[in-house]
Design goal:
148 residues; mainly alpha; 4 helices
Length: 148
Amino acid sequence: MNGVDAWALVRFAHVVGAALWVGGQLALSLVILPLARRMLAPEARGRFVREAGRRFGKLTGTVFLPLQLASGVAMAWHKGVTWASLAEPGYGRTLAAKLALFTAVMAVAALHGRAHSRGRPELARALAVTSLVGSLGVVLLATALPVT
């Protein structure tokens, strides 16, 4: 396997991780949770929502986040990104904005889990929507970056 193929695999892993994260949020928000609200009794619904959120959180912490961090750092290294280059117009600033938004989305997602576990459904829902919108913003910023 030559260097081009290896970097294509790194990019692929990064994109698949992002697709799983955002797609999972969309699937939970638009398909699974509305069906649970409509079809399950309140006690079963609460347990189901907790377990679905817990499982998605575990997947995020054990697969998605490490994959995104490792592949993102590798691609930045390959591209020659430095801390100083993140302040430069174009690629650097776009990447910096993506990283800042990604960090914010992860923090909001963690706050969502905390709000849900503490029985604050209105706050949890607002944080979930915020996380989803932020995740879509991360994907939008990613599309503005040239291939590494």
